[in-house]
Amino acid sequence: MRYMAYDRPVLRGTGGLLFSRLLGTGRGTSMSLGADLRRWALLAVWRDERALEAFLRDSPIAARWRSRARESWHVRLAPVASRGRWNGVDPFEGAGFAGGAVPPVAAGGPVAVLTRASIRLSRLPAFYRAVPAVDLDLRAQDGCLASVGIGEWPLARQATFSLWRDADAVRSFAYKRPGHREVIGRVRREGWYSEELFARFVPYGSEGGWDGADPLA
What is the pLDDT of residue 163? Predict the structure, then answer.
């Protein structure tokens, strides 16, 4: 856990790193009160592939994670849509493939989704009462390959990262599952978030294992 603090200044000095967040994870498939203290994540936006390769090859952070992990999974993502802000900025603006090109898999292949929110303190009880219904919807949704709740701060700054069979599966969960649809309506009506971000990506490379297998294999 101490490296969550120690690694941040090291990351800030990494060449070609445009945006990064070290993140803890929850125990469930979506945002939850429980934390998994053995599982951690790094979200990073890179200037180009060379900068990423240099980090993986030379960074003491990458080396430490490799040496101490019982299991690790790494995915490369090309942003195809993003709306909202993360600490006042859109971290994915201008990122992606040169000229806006997206790999052919985007037409009908896997999709990754990141949702992130800063929850108003007054809305925390309502938010966490709503989480179990959304978690059940997510578990029951056909086409969800994997998902995990992640966060910068306990309770108030939360996110979910999920992998889907295709864009149709994402739309079905977002608009057809009753628990999720009801929560989205309440978020808008009651102003639960002071800031939020939704981003969709095309995965174009992965390695390692997530709960024993690569969900994109």
Answer: 95
pLDDT digit string, tens, across residues 68-112: 999 999 999 999 889 999 999 999 987 655 445 555 445 678 999
User: Does residue 143 come out as left (phi exceeding 0), alpha (psi in the -120 to 50 range) or beta?
Assistant: left
* DSSP result, 124-173: HHHHHHHHHHHHHHHHH-TTEEEEEEEEEETTTEEEEEEEESSHHHHHHH
Residue ranges of domains in the chain: 25-38+73-207
pLDDT, position 103: 55
Pull the structure tokens for residue 43.
């979200």
C-beta of residue 74 within 8 angstroms of C-beta of residue 52: no
Instruction: Give CA–CA dist 203/191, Å, rounded.
Output: 32
Average pLDDT over all residues of the chain = 85
What is the fold, at CATH topology level, of the domain defined by 25-38+73-207? Alpha-Beta Plaits (3.30.70)
